[in-house]
Amino acid sequence: AIRITTRVKRGSVARKYRKNILDFASGFRGAHSRLFRTATQQKQKALTRAYVDRKNKKRTLRRLWIARINAVARRYGSTHSGLIHDFYKNRVLLNCKILAQVATLDAYSFLKIIEEVNEKKS
Amino acid sequence: MRLGRLASTIAIHIRGKDLPTYTPSVDMGAFVIVVNAEKIAVTGKKRYQKLYRRHSGRPGGMKVETFDQLQQRIPERIVEHAVRGMLPKGRLGRRLFTKLKVYKGPEHPHAAQKPVPLPISDKRIMLDK
């Protein structure tokens, strides 16, 4: 076998590779945005955490919504669990937790919803 | 007024959990002023048996006091200790703790903030009364 090894200069390939990673790590604190080797590690961590947290975000937001619905519910004499139970029983299925936004921004409408459900109960 | 029940409602208001704009990462609760702190009560034999411990950091530096003794010495600390245990621990929790103002006796220096009486919706407290 004859190996033909032509001369290859490495050129700026390495620089581009490092620049790519350092650009990702811009805004990180201290050496994490300046030094290539630490930045590589931090980039890896950041991506991993982003993946996990995209899944966690769904959970944490739901927790927040539930806490807010609970706050409004307790102000008017019931609890979050009681309200949700009544909603399900009376087929008020419109209420995805994101309608805790309603409770936060438009308290009047939220009260109307609760009143309607109370009427349907009785 | 019982210690734990009072502390629990205080902590809820300081943390802002009674508001529909509740945000756990932000300090958006209310300030709470407690007066007549020396009148706080506990049931059973806790008055003479509940212990408050603190440690000075040095070996053999554990100091123990009963509820009774602490109430005579520094009654504000009893309420503060109870509420602190019910607030979140951490930087935000420490900041929230500074929103609690406890005073012995019926006077407090915050009349300029026009405080309103705390709305108590805890059934156990309502039943007590």
Automatic annotation (TrEMBL), chain A:
<dbReference type="InterPro" id="IPR049946">
    <property type="entry name" value="RIBOSOMAL_L20_CS"/>
</dbReference>
<keyword id="KW-0689">Ribosomal protein</keyword>
<dbReference type="GO" id="GO:0003735">
    <property type="term" value="F:structural constituent of ribosome"/>
</dbReference>
<dbReference type="Pfam" id="PF00453">
    <property type="entry name" value="Ribosomal_L20"/>
</dbReference>
<dbReference type="InterPro" id="IPR035566">
    <property type="entry name" value="Ribosomal_protein_bL20_C"/>
</dbReference>
<keyword id="KW-0687">Ribonucleoprotein</keyword>
<dbReference type="GO" id="GO:0019843">
    <property type="term" value="F:rRNA binding"/>
</dbReference>
<dbReference type="GO" id="GO:0006412">
    <property type="term" value="P:translation"/>
</dbReference>
<comment type="similarity">
    <text>Belongs to the bacterial ribosomal protein bL20 family.</text>
</comment>
<comment type="function">
    <text>Binds directly to 23S ribosomal RNA and is necessary for the in vitro assembly process of the 50S ribosomal subunit. It is not involved in the protein synthesizing functions of that subunit.</text>
</comment>
<dbReference type="InterPro" id="IPR005813">
    <property type="entry name" value="Ribosomal_bL20"/>
</dbReference>
<keyword id="KW-0694">RNA-binding</keyword>
<protein>
    <recommendedName>
        <fullName>50S ribosomal protein L20</fullName>
    </recommendedName>
</protein>
<dbReference type="GO" id="GO:1990904">
    <property type="term" value="C:ribonucleoprotein complex"/>
</dbReference>
<keyword id="KW-0699">rRNA-binding</keyword>
<dbReference type="GO" id="GO:0005840">
    <property type="term" value="C:ribosome"/>
</dbReference>
TrEMBL record, chain B:
<dbReference type="InterPro" id="IPR036899">
    <property type="entry name" value="Ribosomal_uL13_sf"/>
</dbReference>
<dbReference type="GO" id="GO:0022625">
    <property type="term" value="C:cytosolic large ribosomal subunit"/>
</dbReference>
<dbReference type="GO" id="GO:0006412">
    <property type="term" value="P:translation"/>
</dbReference>
<dbReference type="InterPro" id="IPR005823">
    <property type="entry name" value="Ribosomal_uL13_bac-type"/>
</dbReference>
<comment type="similarity">
    <text>Belongs to the universal ribosomal protein uL13 family.</text>
</comment>
<keyword id="KW-0687">Ribonucleoprotein</keyword>
<protein>
    <recommendedName>
        <fullName>50S ribosomal protein L13, chloroplastic</fullName>
    </recommendedName>
</protein>
<dbReference type="GO" id="GO:0003735">
    <property type="term" value="F:structural constituent of ribosome"/>
</dbReference>
<dbReference type="InterPro" id="IPR023563">
    <property type="entry name" value="Ribosomal_uL13_CS"/>
</dbReference>
<dbReference type="Pfam" id="PF00572">
    <property type="entry name" value="Ribosomal_L13"/>
</dbReference>
<keyword id="KW-0689">Ribosomal protein</keyword>
<dbReference type="GO" id="GO:0003729">
    <property type="term" value="F:mRNA binding"/>
</dbReference>
<dbReference type="GO" id="GO:0017148">
    <property type="term" value="P:negative regulation of translation"/>
</dbReference>
<dbReference type="InterPro" id="IPR005822">
    <property type="entry name" value="Ribosomal_uL13"/>
</dbReference>
